[in-house]
Amino acid sequence: MTVIEALKNRRAIRNYTPQPVEKEKIEQILQAATYAPNDRMREPWHFYVLQNDAMKRYEKMASSYLQERFPTKPHLVESSLKVVQTTPVAIVVTADMVENDEDATADNIFAVCSAIMSMWLAAEELGLGFVWRTRGVGLVHDARMHTFIGADQNQKVVGTIFIGYPEEQELKDKKRTSFEEKTTWL
Prior knowledge:
There is one protein chain. By secondary structure, the protein is an alpha+beta fold. It contains 6 helices and 4 strands; from the N terminus they run H-H-E-H-H-E-H-E-H-E. The protein has helices spanning about 5-10, 25-35, 55-70, 75-85, 100-125, 145-150; strands at about 45-50, 90-95, 130-135, 155-165. It has a 4-stranded antiparallel β-sheet, sandwiched between helices. Helix 2 (about 25-35) packs across helix 5 (about 100-125) and helix 3 (about 55-70) runs antiparallel to helix 4. The longest helix has 24 residues, at about 100-125. The radius of gyration is 17 Å and the shape is globular. The protein starts with a helix and ends in a 22-residue tail after the last strand.
């Protein structure tokens, strides 16, 4: 598979089989992330791998968060929690914040986003499903996640990644706006 084919075929996978993901594959995905471009080689990422008991504790935290946020939408809470309940591994990814330097901090966040995309492509090559969550069940914008993973104060949570062997599903073509409509040639 070429890189362009992998990009075209990439999908957010939210339904997984109970099959555990091998540690070697998780390590390959993490290694791929470290190849991402980053300003001044700061390598501003940190990865918190959640499995087994940590996933159970994460589910409890996510459930509390979602019930508080959506008290009148129990179906939304239930459907959002499904990915946490069925995913064998989650990886919370943080970016280093640079004190008194907003531009460097932004560059670090951009680098971490690139690292996450590298992880996604590696997962695709390894036959794994992958979804990058931020809002909702990803808890990126909630202080509980920061505390849960024990991140330093100078770390910003950028994404929660769910990885597993995908359930069989029919993949539909993604409707995308043509690049021509989103491009200005100067």
